[in-house]
Amino acid sequence: MEAWLLGDKEALLKAYPFAKKQVLQKYVPDSIVGTWEVMADIVYKGGIHALKRNAASYYEIGKFKCECAASIGKYLDIRKNESPSFNYFISKLDYVCSGST
């Protein structure tokens, strides 16, 4: 899910105008990295290390992920996402919704 959120950089920057753009620009869509950790480095003050330090349990980390999804999701443009897996998912939805079988 975080890879799909990171795939729309414009939406992320609208949701988090203070985001660390240099970290976001280095992210390669769908790369095999800790995507939620990258998300934290981009949008959480102090990055992943601060989030882990401030989180009393995995619940707080899950809450952070949900907040990111809600904030960025408001601005997502499904036709401008750079994530190959997201685009594959959307293409299959388009196929099913077009009535093809």
Describe this structure as you would to a colleague.
This is DUF4276 family protein. There is one protein chain. The radius of gyration is 15 Å and the shape is elongated. The chain starts with a helix and ends with a helix. It is built from seven helices and no strands. With 101 residues, it is an all-alpha fold. 64% of the residues lie in helices and 0% in strands. The mean pLDDT is 94.
How are the secondary structure elements laid out?
Layout: H1 2-6, H2 9-15, H3 21-26, H4 35-43, H5 47-54, H6 58-73, H7 84-97
Helix pairs in contact: 2-6, 4-5
In short:
This is DUF4276 family protein. It comes from Candidatus Fusicatenibacter intestinigallinarum. The chain is an all-alpha fold and 101 residues long.
List keywords for this structure.
101 residues, 7 helices, elongated
Instruction: Give the strand tally.
Output: 0
Shape: elongated
Ranges where pLDDT stays below 50 over 5 or more residues in a row are none
Mean pLDDT: 94
Instruction: Tell me the strand percentage band.
Output: under 5%
Sequence of secondary-structure elements? HHHHHHH
Q: Structural class from helices and strands?
A: mainly alpha
If you compute it from the alpha carbons, what radius of gyration comes out, rounded to the nearest whole angstrom? 15 Å
Calculate the terminal CA-CA distance, rounded to whole Å.
27 Å
Number of helical segments? 7
Overall helicity: 55-70%
Largest sheet: none
Protein name: DUF4276 family protein
Organism: Candidatus Fusicatenibacter intestinigallinarum
